[in-house]
């Protein structure tokens, strides 16, 4: 089981080495901006790396929204990131499930997800697996609670779509971690990546505030149990820079019995 961290995008391999990480996740552009990712000078080195690479799409992306001025550029930016992620040999592109605005019909949000995959299919499909991540907040989210996730997967049906399970988002979003993996897999059939984070916010608080594994409101042994059940690679998106994340990785390796 490969364990790593979300790191700065400037030199991801150096960041991996500093944390003894076997995997890294990073952004390819400003996560709060709409700029397309630039080609990376270190693409050859990244492709050849032993470390597994994951790309996180910008937070501004919301392919579900009924707002054309957000949805249309979101589709383009997502496909642009998938192309750039493929160029560096990434294993997957993580994107949040998105939401519709208050008063808008969530069914149309799910249909916009279907159109996003259809849009990508028109140009040959996403060149890396797209992993939709569960989110913590909002009352109109496509992937906060499992009832919505089930509707999303119904709509995406035939498309190749992956899932990223974030433990902080699940807890803060109002889903119990106990047996969560079984309930998710009953819907998605797969978990491609676990974001192992503790949560500063309480259960069902809707707050997206990550904490180190031994801090926060989640029993860390529950996070370990989720990882064990998922059997997927793990990325910690926790605070504290190199020492904080290295400690979280070491904690997981010790509990999972997977010495590096
Ligand atoms: Zn996450």
The helix content is: 40-55%
Broad shape: globular
- The computed structural class is alpha/beta
Mean pLDDT: 96
Note poorly predicted spans.
none
Please describe the biggest sheet, giving its number of strands, its sense, and whether it closes into a barrel. Answer: 8 strands, parallel, barrel
Bound molecules: zinc ion
The radius of gyration over CA amounts to: 17 Å
- Percentage of β-strand residues: 5-15%
Task: Please tell me about this protein's structure.
The structure is a single chain. This protein has helices spanning 12-19, 43-48, 68-87, 106-122, 146-156, 167-173, 180-188, 220-230, 241-256, and strands at 3-6, 23-26, 52-56, 92-96, 130-133, 162-166, 193-195, 198-199, 210-211, 234-236. The mean pLDDT is 96. Helices cover 40% and strands 14% of the residues. The structure holds zinc ion (ZN). Zinc ion (ZN) binds next to loops.
Features:
two-stranded antiparallel ribbon; 8-stranded parallel β-barrel; binds zinc ion; alpha/beta
